[in-house]
Amino acid sequence: MAASAATNPLDIVKVRQQLRTQIPGARSNAFWTVGVEMARTEGVLSLMKGFSASMLRELIYSGLRLGSYEYFKDVLYDRSRGALSREGIGLKVAAATVASALGSAIANPTDLVKVRMQAYYPSGSPFKNMRHAFRTIWKEGTGPTASSGAGSVLGGLRALYRGVNPTTMRGIVLSVSQICSYDQAKQVLKRREIMQEGVGLHFVASMFAGLVCSITSNPVDVVKVRLMNDSGREFRGVSDCVRNIVTREGPLTFYKGFGMCWARLGLHTVLTFVVFERLRLWFGVGAL
Question: Where are the Solcar repeats (predicted)?
């Protein structure tokens, strides 16, 4: 939550970049241009849109993926009966996959609300606050064609879980690359006696992890953002969204907003792991 609070302005600029559909590489889509334009036309506070939804998302998503990572490492290690090494990358990948799939799937409604609140609306945002955004999106699935009762509830849930597949996929890709690269970098640096446990080691390992997860997750993030903001149901699903992006805008579109993605995820990753390791120390829990 601390990391997301600090990087919210970078996150919203990244979302705005990924929702634009002009030719990839156009100057008007540069992250500094988008940020300055937002501050000038919508006010400086527009860079903090979706803040409440972002905090709720991190509480659920990162709470589960980081909080359960070591639990799943222990469980999978015991179940493998020695087939998976404690120091091996296979155990880390497996544990991070399960933990992140759980966290990202459950947190999808908060992620969707965050994206909708951060998107650009020419006539002004249709959402008064996070609660109003949740209600509005719920009603998208309970319109005139939806039956009352259980059918209506199911429709509302479907609206809130729009884009859950790419969200879960992105969560797995990001968390596996982020948590595993951090864990592995720490392990290698300590084993080779290059660095010892401490803030310096946490900073260096998280800087490396931030670059790795930015490269691996940006394409999935673009698809996720496009689908979540697709209130008009332009895309039939993940494959249709990918096909439309490639044919209309070209494959480089999957790295639209990469500079801001790296800036945000790099800072987010450093803050996440440095704060995480400090909290573990203060509460008497061993380092990751």
Answer: 1-75, 87-188, 197-282
